[in-house]
Write a structure and sequence with these properties.
The chain has 10 helices and 14 strands. By secondary structure, it is of the alpha/beta class. It folds into 2 domains: 216 residues, 3-Layer(aba) Sandwich (Rossmann fold), CATH 3.40.50; 61 residues, 2-Layer Sandwich (Alpha-Beta Plaits).
């Protein structure tokens, strides 16, 4: 288990992380979310021992993270961190040795991942000769070549097309199934929804939303109703509890401020002819994220 307990980190007068606590169990993917400047990068660096927290503790399997533990960690950064003039092979040898691996083990793992990502021909090519997508594959391999116990992924799908996103997703799920502890960060909320059982949303270093994705959606009382049929948008907007109506191809998306108003909408549309669809859905994580971050900045 990875455990953060009341972590605080400041840079002068700027409090980058403010009393942050959360736990991530083995075989779990945890979402660490926030807009730029929210404190995610500082949190990552504290977890890995690159920065010392001013207050609080970070432990992995009950032990403080130090140089004996860092060999069990893999980190894929949002920014490219590859040495462009080195070959893929030399780059992996460099990273692998830093993680305490033998050259034989590094080459075995490298060959396995190059084959999996269908880029075997690039083994002895310089990084700068690769496309952005293939550089991202190499950066992922660098993060996982040591088969990490703790894997931190910051925008792992940057620069990837949909086919390669699926390839990465498969690899990440495999680490999860093998018991790795995974922290996942992305600005693409649909990716977070696909992966993360639990998450925390940071605003100015503080957790403004925290818990299981399922419970967060359940507790967020606003709902979306999708209706197909001949309807009058202006009449829908007059219904108590309706805050917005959008026409989407053959459907109307009706947003209500609380689930208690679902019956109001249903009572209105059941009088209409040719209603072929009435579906109540939970809001997307993107909607909840925008709402909670907006509320926090308005305070």
């Amino acid at each position: 288990m990875l455990k953060l307990n009341n972590i605080t980190k400041s840079y002068g007068d700027l409090k980058a992380v403010d009393n942050l606590s959360f736990e991530v169990n083995e075989g779990e993917i945890f979402g660490l979310l926030g807009i730029n400047g929210a404190g995610k990068t500082t949190t990552f660096r504290v977890i890995m021992g690159l920065l010392d927290a001013d207050e609080g503790t970070v432990t992995l399997d009950g032990k403080q993270i130090d140089y004996e533990v860092t060999d069990k960690i893999g980190f894929l950064t949002e920014e490219r961190s590859l040495l462009l003039k080195m070959t893929v092979y030399d780059q992996m040898m460099y990273y692998g040795v830093l993680k305490g691996m033998s050259k034989e083990k590094i080459e075995t793992e490298l060959d396995k991942w190059l084959k999996r990502f269908e880029i075997e021909e690039y083994k002895h090519r310089k990084i700068k000769e690769l496309s952005k997508g293939n550089q991202q594959k190499i950066q992922f391999i660098a993060a996982v070549i040591n088969n990490p116990r703790l894997l931190i992924l910051d925008e792992p799908f940057a620069g990837l097309d949909p086919v390669n996103v699926e390839m990465f997703m498969s690899a990440i799920k495999e680490f999860k199934n093998n018991g790795a502890i995974i922290i996942f960060s992305s600005h693409r909320m649909e990716h977070v929804e696909l992966f993360c059982e639990k998450l925390v949303v940071l605003v100015k270093g503080q957790a403004v939303l925290k818990g299981s994705l399922k419970d967060i959606k359940k507790e967020y009382r606003k709902k979306n109703i999708f209706i197909s049929g001949k309807l009058d948008k202006d009449e829908l907007l007059k219904i108590k509890g309706v805050v917005e109506v959008r026409k989407k191809q053959t459907d109307y998306e009706v947003k209500i401020e609380d689930e208690k108003y679902i019956d109001n909408v249903f009572e209105h549309i059941k009088k209409m002819d040719k209603i072929t669809k009435f579906v109540v859905e939970e809001p997307s994580l993107n909607e909840i994220f925008v709402s909670k971050v907006g509320e926090s900045y308005e305070k």
